Amino acid sequence: CSSLAIGTTTGYRLFSLSSVEQLDQVHESNEIPDVYIVERLFSSSLVVVVSHAKPQQMNVYHFKKGTEICNYSYSSNILSIRLNRQRLVVCLEESIYIHNIKDMKLLKTILDTPPNTTGLCALSINHANSYLAYPGSATSGEIALYDGNTLKTACTIPAHDGPLAALAFNSTGSKLASASEKGTVIRVFSIPGGQKLYEFRRGMKRYVNISSLVFSMDSQFLCASSNTETVHIFKLEHLTDSRPEEPPTWSGYMGKMFQAATNYLPAQVSGMMNQDRAFATVRLNISGQRNICALSTIQKLPRLLVTTSDGHLCIYNLDPQDGGECVLIKKHSLLGSGKMEENKENDLRPPLPQSYAATVARQSTVPSTSTMPGYSEDGGALRGEVIPEHEFATGPVCLDDENEFPPVSI
């Protein structure tokens, strides 16, 4: 959460989020129009771009050098892309492709996945735990967990009754949060075991569309935003696994008695008792618009960032001790609909943020063509073939120095 990547009708822009008061533009490109996916590898120079002009083609760039590393074409529209230092994942409506990010070879093809019209998937940013999560069913909230390192299925998690709407790993890849299309309950599971650790109730009055689900880097907080005006931040307390013995207080005694009592209650009732409400909230001045949130540390303080589809980046202070209503401290205006508008608040000219918008997907098969210096057209792997680690080439992904490939400060 140290960078902001924005796709626009004219291209894309990258910003550094190191300051509250201003957005520092890192890069701007107008070579490809109508960008709806732009993914940057942490703070490195590697960026992956997909355009509405060619929705079946993925372009990988080294933007500081102004060079294209490679591009891959698929026979169906690309719905989302995820990447860490080890893997690059391309999600189509009914298939997923896993590439080795060092040389961009295709390592594995997961075919015949349940229809996934929004391209919902999550990849752990911790490359040592390169777990991939995606819907295991189109009708229920089943999560398929896949190990991106060993290229094997890890487990299946029956997370919700209804279809999934959001998935997010924590920074270490040890926890996975999920929400269904109802949007009323958010659950957190241990990885790779799939045991339920937490259950948070976002609300009971109405169903909502969860548009963003994200952990803080220290895994202490979980943020959920939707098409309503309220953003919820939950605090991950009272771990269900090992914890220090509580002092013999009356409240501690009653808490243990209450926990024991839930074992004798119907599952539906006991589940309600284990749910916690939001630790902190934000009330946006808009409703019904898509937004993306992030929990980050900027200038040594915890912040909540909210980017909205009407063209704004809002930065809030988060009180990690007492929670409550978060305070808006800065609102940056962004470009509206790709038009060059005068920014009256901060004289900034960043563009309208585009989410990982789902494009209309057709029947999906394996990648049809790819262009890669020194590699075969099939990307070095056939349908589902696994390439041994020792056969990896040095590869075309050569950033400025070895220190740039992991996250670096800008």
Automatic annotation (TrEMBL):
Q: One MF term from GO for this chain?
A: phosphatidylinositol-3-phosphate binding
Key words, A-Z: Autophagy, Lipid-binding, Membrane, Repeat, WD repeat
**What is its membrane topology?**
Peripheral membrane protein
Q: Which GO terms describe its biological process?
A: protein localization to phagophore assembly site; response to stress
Q: Which SMART domains match?
A: WD40 (SM00320)
Chain spans, region Disordered: 361-382
Q: Name one Pfam family in it.
A: PROPPIN
Keyword presence, Oxidoreductase: no
- Positions with biased composition (Polar residues): 361-373
Q: Where's it mainly located?
A: membrane
Would you say which domain of life the source belongs to? Eukaryota
Q: Does the keyword Transit peptide apply?
A: no
Query: Which cellular compartments is it found in?
Result: Preautophagosomal structure membrane
Any one annotated GO CC term: phagophore assembly site membrane
Family note = Belongs to the WD repeat PROPPIN family.
Per its UniProt record, what PANTHER family does this chain match? WD-REPEAT PROTEIN INTERACTING WITH PHOSPHOINOSIDES WIPI -RELATED
> What is the protein's name according to its record?
WIPI1 protein
Look up and give the organism this protein is from.
Answer: Stercorarius parasiticus (Parasitic jaeger)
Please name the gene that encodes this protein.
Answer: Wipi1
